[in-house]
Amino acid sequence: MFNRKNDSNPGERVVFETRPRFLANLKSTILKLIILIGIFYYFRTIISVVITLQEYVVKLVWLPLIQVTFYLLLIIIIFLIISIIFDIISWRRKKYQLTNQRVVIQKGILRRKRSSIQYPKIQDIEIYQGIVDRIVSAGDIEIYGGHEHTNIVLEDIPNPREVEDMIDRVMLGEDVGFKTQRSKTPKRSIIEEYDQKFKR
To answer: Are 113 and 30 in contact (CB under 8 A)?
Structure first.
C-alpha cells in the first residue's frame, strides 16, 4: 500500500488501487520459466551429447568440453532463477493508484520511483491491448499531460476500459468509488424519547 500519510495531499482520497495483471506483466518471466524447465528436463541429454562430442574433440584438441558445458548450464540456471525472482518482486512492488486528485504510479525495488499526474493536466488517454492482453483482460493505458514528456503509462493494468472510464468520471467531478455517508440523526436519550412520545 502507498504511504498515505506522507504521500497524499490534504483531502486526497483513494478511488482505486491495483497492480499490473500477473500473466500480462510477466510474459518474459513465463518464457524464462519454460527455458529453465527445458534445461532441467534435457540436462542429462545435453551432457551425454557433450560426452560423445568430447571423444571426437579430444582426438583433435584437448578441451574440457564436459566441464565447460556443465558450468555453463549451471550459470544459465542460476541466472534464470535470479531473473525470475527479480521479475516477481518487481511486479509485487509496482502499484497504480487513482485518487480524487491524481493518477499515481509507484515502482522499483532498490530505487523507488513515484510518478503522478493531476487530473486537470490530463489532455488525452490511449489504451493499447495486444492479443495476450485481450485474453487476460489487461492492457496499457497511456495518459498524456499538457506539456511534452508529461505522459505516464499504466502497464498491463487489469480491465483498462473500466479504469479509463473511472478516470473520465473522476475528471468530470463524480465521486467514483466513494461511499456516500448517510446523515446520522443524533441519538436521543431514553428520557428525551419518553418526553417526545407523551408530549401534548
So the answer is: no
Cell of 40: 532441467
Give me the residues of the chain with pLDDT under 50, please.
1-6, 178-185
Axis crossing angle, helix 27-60 with helix 65-93, rounded to the nearest 10: 170
Q: Order of strands, edge to edge, in the sheet holding 113-118?
A: 14-18, 95-99, 102-107, 113-118
Across 50-80, b (16+ Cβ under 10 Å) vs e yields: beeebeeeeeeeeeebeeebeeebeeeeeeb
Predicted TM-score (pTM) of the model is 0.67
Return the residue matching grid coordinates 512492488: 93
* Nearest-angstrom CA–CA distance, 36 and 84: 10
The half-sphere exposure of 150 on its side-chain side, counting CA atoms within 13 A, is 14
35-57, pLDDT tens digit by residue? 999 999 999 998 888 888 777 76
